[in-house]
Write a structure and sequence with these properties.
The protein is mainly beta and about 200 residues long. It has 2 domains: about 90 residues; about 80 residues. About 0% of the residues lie in helices and about 45% in strands. It has a 6-stranded antiparallel beta sheet, with no helix packed on it. The protein has a 6-stranded antiparallel beta sheet with strand order 13-12-21-20-17-18, with no helix packed on it. Strand 10 and strand 11 form a beta hairpin. It starts with a strand and ends with a strand. About 10% of the residues have low confidence. It comes from Pseudoduganella plicata.
Amino acid sequence: MAKILISRDGVLEQTLQLSKERMAIGRGRHNDIVLEHPTVSGEHAVITTILDDSFLEDLYSTNGTFVNGHRVGKHYLQHNDVIKLAKYRIEFVADGIRPLTGAALSPAVPHPATPALPAAVIEVLNGSNAGKRLALTKAQTSLGRSGIQVVIISRGSLGYAATHTEGEREALLNGAPLGRAPQPLADGDVLDLSGTRMAFRLA
């Protein structure tokens, strides 16, 4: 399980396991990770963990979120990435994300399941973009409009999964609410985002 090491002024203050799918970071007491500093926004950022992968997203904070010296909106976290929020230095440690694979034992050996993972695409079924295809080659692919309705499709060692991440109106998977827990995708599954229907297809 991945973890983060939180330091301020060179002093390690917290070590936290990313034990939840969504962990909010901010000054407000309701956050999962509370950073008590006036330059930290009430709701500053969030770390979402889907299958094997963790993603950092800035929540339109006043002073920004930085990874390895660069301001980010969304970022796929990798081992030893350094996140800066105001006076805080947060190191992402990816140890144990894949505890049952050869990659965890020998990082130089490619994960055996990754090459065998079939290629996949999202095909738009209706509307002006009907027939268009989007290849799912990234670890994380976002569908929809930010702030209205967003679905993330993750590509991990166990296959593909979809998660509803933004918007009060939930996206649908095969006619049922998708929800905020990762749902495995099978060939031919249909996603519905505000009336736009898209099929998941294995290439």
